[in-house]
Design goal:
By secondary structure, the protein is mainly alpha-helical. It is built from 12 helices and 6 strands. It folds into 2 domains: 42 residues, Phosphorylase Kinase, domain 1; 233 residues, Aminoglycoside 3'-phosphotransferase, Chain: A, domain 2 (Alpha-Beta Complex). The strands form 3 sheets. It has a two-stranded antiparallel sheet. A two-stranded antiparallel ribbon has the order 3-6.
Length: 283
């Protein structure tokens, strides 16, 4: 790993924490943390998404294995010094959608206030370690390993202390591949049962987290395209939008409907606009 920021301490800390919990984060062989360099274990090329493409029959088994990891993380104490992913921070991140996906920065503050209120009403006080990009492109299938160690974990340097269920929502509402609805619902039912959560309350939590996450993704993808020329992200916006629309169907999302209704759907014309580089003053 070569981290241009010059700091690999977060990755090293979380990797060691995950390995101590019996999970398959890469082993750290050597670290020059001040220079941003790590020599670490190569977990291979069996990315969940590619494995499932080759053998669709293994999809449920791989997702069940990923869920086992989340249940384990739910039961493991947080490592020290992990930054909290608070409702205020979650709302602020999602408000980016009003300055990059659509040019309405005047809406950011009022939207963030309303979303923070909805989050506080529908998230429990319980927090867990969230890896934040827990999906089929960041999970490696290690078939030769036992139990929980069959799931290799990557891209967790931004891990935080956040809402229970956040990584499950990341897993089942995936912009890069469709997870069948019956499989997603079964995973949710398993998670709520094994984590001791109320299914009805978690349905509201799932909707709120799905909306927050996908609003943030719309904003981030638009910014990456317009400011940095990474237009490939624009092709992922229609499924992101579909996940947002699904979340908005839950009654707890009604206070946010006036804001979301102002967002244009990802039509070909709007996507083309988002592929166009913005001026130097673009937020």
């Amino acid at each position: 790993m070569d981290d241009p920021t010059g700091s690999t301490s977060a990755f090293v800390q979380i990797a060691r924490h995950l390995r101590a919990a019996g999970l398959s984060a890469p082993a750290i062989i050597a670290a020059a943390e001040g220079d941003g360099f790590l020599l670490m274990e190569d977990l291979g090329d069996c990315v969940f998404a590619r494995v499932i493409e080759t053998d669709p029959g293994c999809e449920a088994r791989l997702y069940d294995a990923a869920l086992d990891v989340l249940v384990r993380l739910h039961d493991v104490p947080l490592p020290g010094g992990v930054v909290p992913f608070t409702p205020e921070l979650m709302a602020r991140q999602a408000s980016l959608v009003f300055s990059s996906y659509i040019d309405r920065p005047d809406q950011k503050a009022s939207f963030a206030t309303e979303l923070e209120t909805v989050l506080r009403r529908n998230l429990s006080d319980s927090v867990t370690l969230i890896l934040r990009d827990f999906h089929a492109e960041n999970l490696i299938w290690l078939a030769e390993r036992p139990g929980l160690q069959k799931v290799g974990l990557l891209d967790f340097q931004d891990a935080m202390a956040g809402p229970v269920g956040y990584d499950l929502v990341s897993l089942i509402h995936d912009a890069r591949r469709d997870v069948p609805r019956d499989l997603a619902d079964r995973l949710v039912a398993r998670f709520t049962a094994e984590a001791g959560l109320d299914p009805e309350q978690f349905a509201a939590t799932r909707a709120v987290l799905c909306a927050q996450r996908n609003l943030r993704i719309l904003g981030v993808f638009a910014r990456l395209s317009r400011q940095h020329g990474k237009t490939g992200y624009i092709d992922l916006m229609p499924p992101v939008w579909a996940h947002l629309m699904q979340a908005m169907q839950h009654p707890v999302m009604r206070p946010l409907a006036p804001f979301v209704d102002e967002l244009p759907p990802p039509t070909p014309d709007h996507l083309q606009r988002l592929r166009t580089p913005c001026a130097a003053t673009c937020p």
